[in-house]
Write a structure and sequence with these properties.
2 helices; 13 strands; single chain; 16% helix; alpha+beta
């Protein structure tokens, strides 16, 4: 699956469009309170057995909880930081013990999700390019998401939420971002 966000300035309130025909796949909607981000909903805009949008995932920012298909888990239970070398801090995410573990890294304006194949070699199963840079004379490219069939079959919603969560936190921590993360996008 390859999709792009239609709102280049704010992935927390955007639609994910299929790159081949621009049809909407998912939508993100974020509510804010006086304390900042409250909840980000991930909605399937084309559910198979329903009409209208169906919420398939959520990030509860203040409670530090992720929700996938109605099942809630604390972010601290899903994420683990490990030091691989001197400066490389990798983040490892896993929805449950029975599921794959994903190493999530940010380099060169792109998040990558890597997992280990059965022979122990790493395999990139997802990419989230966020090439947002203010340009004076050209348009910025939209954020682009791509997931392999393996990731789609096993952890599509979870990986989408992890990429959105990671990028929102990265934006909040950068100097260009002010407030609670929405203004600097």
């Amino acid at each position: 699956m390859e999709a792009k966000f239609d709102n280049k300035a704010n992935i927390l309130n955007a639609r994910l469009l299929a790159t081949h025909d621009n049809s909407p796949i998912y939508a993100t909607k974020t509510n804010f309170t006086f304390r900042g981000r409250d909840i980000t909903l991930l909605q399937d805009t084309n559910p198979a057995l329903s009409t209208g949008s169906v919420t398939v995932g959520a990030i509860h920012w203040n409670d530090k909880i992720m929700e996938v298909n109605g099942q809630k888990k604390k972010v601290a239970d899903l994420k683990e930081k490990r030091k691989d070398g001197f400066l490389n801090k990798a983040r490892y995410w896993r929805w449950s013990a029975e599921r794959r573990e994903y190493e999530i890294k940010y380099t060169n304006d792109e998040w990558t999700a890597t997992t280990l194949k059965s022979d122990g070699t790493p395999k990139i199963v997802g990419r989230f390019a966020v090439p947002y840079r203010p340009h004076l004379f050209t348009k910025a490219d939209p954020p682009l998401l791509s997931l392999t069939r393996t990731a789609l079959a096993e952890d599509e919603i979870f990986l989408l939420l992890v990429f959105i969560y990671s990028e929102a936190k990265r934006q909040s921590d950068t100097n260009s971002s002010v407030g609670n993360g929405s203004e600097g996008w």
